[in-house]
């Protein structure tokens, strides 16, 4: 049995995986061009809409497939083997719909509107919370974007960074401080109401469209207010453990697998005239290939195991898995980086050639080190969870 088939559980999953596998092959043919130019892959997004992928996590009550977290990360990993940028970008939408389905963090009528727009028009959604001054929202900074109460809603002004998928978004969840108040709010803004500033010019993941978005006195009606929160007041009512964030490690493991595949094929078929056999049989190359497998297999197994546990868990138990999901992200991104590095060592100096995909994998996979949660946060969460039972 091939490693890739270990994680498929049902025939329905297998059939859908064949769709994403074919898309992955198509995306791979376009990836170098978008990487070189730093352009957004609109045609890839169109393909994902056309095949229905953007609808697969929508609840059945609204006509979606309602696929599991386990299956979702399987498709994300597969798409990333073709193009990490496309996989990471679409993962935010598909994963966010999955999270909203389980957490019901949106008011019911607003969630229904979003799902119906996804089903009818292939509408896309993402959360945009990072800002130039506050950095990642996971660090707790108050957003400088401001929401001013007006009749029947709010007017919002501000700027968000790292707004992945921005060129294709129809719905944007933004955070903002409430004017003349210590409270903060979450608001759902229409994509047509924002301005995109094309700032995304980076080392890796160059085609995610993670530009800045600017809101200039944008009116948001009361019906699109998700929540208003007071400082120091925490609610667990919508805490689903954040399982959907496994799309991040799934993406970087997919990039690592693409590098693994390239190195394995190269080693099995390249035979310099100084040898009577392919380089795969050279001891130090064989060792590196084995190390690549040993980097990826435990990380993938942990990821799929915890996804299955989340799917099977009661809603009340899912928050307890959050620290372990962080562990998956830390383990996956670090091991994927090591696997790509080893793949390049197997291929040698030609691995740096722009005509081959390895140097793109090398750059793309490094971005995972900077996706949330950061390693220090993961280790802190694991430590606190481990000592919680023994504290007075």
How would you describe this structure to a colleague?
By secondary structure, this protein is an alpha+beta fold. The chain folds into 3 domains: 3-123, Butyryl-Coa Dehydrogenase, subunit A, domain 1 (Orthogonal Bundle); 127-229, Butyryl-CoA Dehydrogenase, subunit A, domain 2, CATH 2.40.110.10; 243-390, Butyryl-CoA Dehydrogenase, subunit A, domain 3 (Up-down Bundle), CATH 1.20.140.10. The protein is built from 10 helices and 8 strands. It has helices at residues 11-37, 42-50, 69-82, 84-103, 108-121, 247-269, 283-312, 322-347, 358-366, 375-387; strands at residues 125-128, 146-150, 153-163, 171-178, 184-190, 195-197, 211-221, 225-229. Strands 1, 2, 3, 4, 5, 6, 7 and 8 form an 8-stranded mixed β-sheet that branches. Helix 4 runs antiparallel to helix 6 (247-269) and helix 8 (322-347) packs across helix 10 (375-387). It is globular and about 80 Å long. Residues 129-151 are annotated as: Disordered.
Key phrases:
alpha+beta, Butyryl-Coa Dehydrogenase, subunit A, domain 1, Butyryl-CoA Dehydrogenase, subunit A, domain 2, Butyryl-CoA Dehydrogenase, subunit A, domain 3, 3 domains, globular
Q: Multimeric state of these chains?
A: single chain
In the predicted model, the low-confidence regions spanning at least 5 consecutive residues are none
Largest sheet: 8 strands, mixed
Strand content: 5-15%
Helical coverage, percent range: 40-55%
Domain count: the total is 3
Shape label = globular
- String of helices and strands: HHHHHEEEEEEEEHHHHH
Overall mean confidence score, pLDDT: 95
- Indicate the structural class: alpha+beta
Provide the CATH topology of the largest domain: Butyryl-CoA Dehydrogenase, subunit A, domain 3
- Between the first and last Cα atoms, what is the distance in angstroms? 50 Å
Count of extended strands: 8
The CATH H-level superfamily of the largest domain is Butyryl-CoA Dehydrogenase, subunit A, domain 3
- Count helical runs: 10
Q: What top-tier CATH class of the largest domain fits best?
A: Mainly Alpha
CATH architecture of the largest domain: Up-down Bundle
Organism: Alicyclobacillus fodiniaquatilis
Region (Disordered): 129-151
Domain Acyl-CoA oxidase/dehydrogenase middle: 128-218
GO molecular function: oxidoreductase activity
